[in-house]
């Protein structure tokens, strides 16, 4: 089996989409290593219209997988990555499809209030935090960005980065069989 490449920084999907899925399938943040929109091991799940999320998880202490996630109706498949990690593919619940599209487009302020609340709660963020300011297009944060970038941003401009989909690909090649529900 392949070894997991070093995860330097969590992907934007981990910041914005994982909390939305957590509302339907409880993801234990302590075992979520990162999330990905695409996986080279399963190109059949990679398309222009992203329909789910690959979640890289650490095995439980006894080297078992999270039964709650695997038994969820949103679980599509899972596979071992190496001795420490496994990957789960979770399809997006219908209730969050529009908001996941907004995230992929970088239109964070267009997310529903419910989704914004889930994201902030998942990350323990408040009105004072950057994530809140991005989701709500804070005028103060806009000014801060304008000053640091030495530009003027129109009101229509989102304050967060657009997802770089090339960084949302799990690239560790794994030789394994598909494990399905």
Short note summarizing the structure:
This protein is an alpha+beta fold.
Description:
With 181 residues, the protein is of the alpha+beta class. The chain has a domain at 12-96 and 164-180. 28% of the residues lie in helices and 17% in strands. The strands form 2 sheets. The chain has a 5-stranded antiparallel beta sheet. A two-stranded parallel ribbon has the order 2-6. A hairpin with a 4-residue loop joins strand 4 and strand 5 (85-91). The longest helix is centred in the last third of the chain and has 11 residues, at 139-149.
Q: Please provide the count of β strands.
A: 7
Structural class: alpha+beta
Name the quaternary structure.
single chain
Instruction: State the order of secondary-structure elements, H for helix, E for strand.
Output: HHEEEHEEHHHHEE
Largest sheet features: 5 strands, antiparallel
User: Rg, please?
Assistant: 17 Å
Average pLDDT level: 88
**Spatial order of strands in the largest sheet:** 1-3-5-4-7
- Identify the overall geometry: elongated
**How much of the sequence is in beta strands?**
15-25%
Distance between the termini: 22 Å
Helix content: 25-40%
Regions with pLDDT < 50 over 5+ consecutive residues? 176-181
**Number of discrete helical segments:** 7
Topology (SSEs and partners):
Blueprint: H1 12-16, H2 18-22, E1 32-36, E2 38-39, E3 52-58, H3 67-70, E4 75-80, E5 85-91, H4 97-105, H5 113-122, H6 130-135, H7 139-149, E6 169-170, E7 179-180
Parallel strand pairs: 2-6
Antiparallel strand pairs: 1-3, 3-5, 4-5, 4-7
């Amino acid at each position: 089996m392949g070894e997991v490449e070093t995860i330097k920084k969590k992907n934007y999907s981990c910041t914005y989409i994982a909390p939305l899925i957590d509302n339907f399938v409880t993801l234990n943040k302590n075992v979520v290593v990162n999330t990905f929109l695409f996986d080279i091991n399963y190109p059949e799940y990679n398309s222009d219209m992203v329909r789910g999320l690959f979640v890289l998880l650490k095995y439980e202490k006894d080297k078992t997988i999270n039964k709650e996630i695997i038994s969820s109706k949103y679980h599509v498949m899972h596979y071992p990555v190496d001795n420490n990690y496994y990957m789960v593919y979770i399809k997006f619940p219908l209730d969050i499809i529009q908001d996941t599209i907004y995230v992929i487009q970088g239109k964070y302020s267009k997310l529903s209030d419910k989704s914004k609340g889930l994201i902030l709660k998942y990350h323990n963020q408040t009105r004072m935090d950057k994530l809140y300011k991005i989701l709500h297009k804070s005028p103060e944060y806009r000014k801060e960005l304008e000053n640091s970038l030495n530009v003027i941003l129109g009101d229509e401009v989102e304050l967060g980065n657009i997802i770089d989909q090339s960084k949302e690909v799990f690239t560790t090649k794994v030789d394994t069989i598909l494990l399905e529900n």
